[in-house]
């Protein structure tokens, strides 16, 4: 598979990894999720009147969401109990979709066309 270059994406590897975002994935693995986010933004949001700057932020946050939503080792903790220890994670079988992670929620917030949010189609909702 050809690795996505920053020039092929609205966001950059540095932008995805910046701002305190932590991941154990390699740069190549992150770029695969960047490619997925780029494809979704191209297919679903282009031509909806959103600025390129806004689309870049959506693409960055959507990449982060994919990592925290789809990668088992990276899943975001939704709730935890102190003792005895118990954790619930956001994940691919969550009905919450984009709302399951803070990055998905930010994606919805940036999407002023309401294509991805509650008024549109939260396309990452998955039911078990």
Q: Could you walk me through the main structural features you see in this protein, from its secondary elements to its overall organization?
A:
The protein has 128 residues and is mainly alpha-helical. It contains four helices and two strands, in the order αααββα. Helix 2 crosses helix 3 (52-70) and helix 3 (52-70) runs antiparallel to helix 4. The radius of gyration is 15 Å and the shape is globular. The termini are far apart.
Task: Give the key terms.
128 residues; mainly alpha; globular
Query: What's the mean pLDDT score?
Result: 79
Question: Count the helices. How many?
Answer: 4
Alpha-beta content class = mainly alpha
Spatial strand arrangement across the major sheet: 1-2
| Cα gyration radius (Å) | 15 Å
N-C termini distance: 30 Å
Run of helices and strands? HHHEEH
| Overall 3D form | globular
What proportion strand? Answer: 5-15%
Q: Kindly state the percentage of residues in helix.
A: 40-55%
Give the secondary structure arrangement, pairings included.
Layout: H1 13-17, H2 27-45, H3 52-70, E1 77-81, E2 86-89, H4 102-110
Antiparallel strand pairs: 1-2
Helix pairs in contact: 2-3, 3-4
Condensed summary:
With 128 residues, the protein is mainly α.
């Amino acid at each position: 598979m050809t690795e996505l270059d920053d020039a092929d994406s609205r966001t950059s590897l540095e932008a995805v990894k910046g701002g305190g975002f932590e991941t154990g994935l390699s740069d190549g693995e992150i770029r695969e999720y960047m490619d997925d986010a780029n494809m979704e933004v191209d297919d679903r949001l282009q031509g909806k009147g959103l600025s390129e700057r806004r689309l870049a932020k959506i693409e960055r946050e959507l990449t982060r969401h994919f990592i925290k939503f789809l990668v088992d080792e990276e899943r975001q903790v939704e709730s935890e109990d102190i003792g005895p220890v118990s954790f619930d994670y956001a994940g691919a079988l969550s009905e919450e979709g984009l709302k399951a992670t803070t990055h998905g929620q930010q994606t919805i917030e940036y999407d002023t066309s309401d294509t991805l949010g509650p008024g549109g189609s939260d396309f990452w909702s998955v039911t078990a």
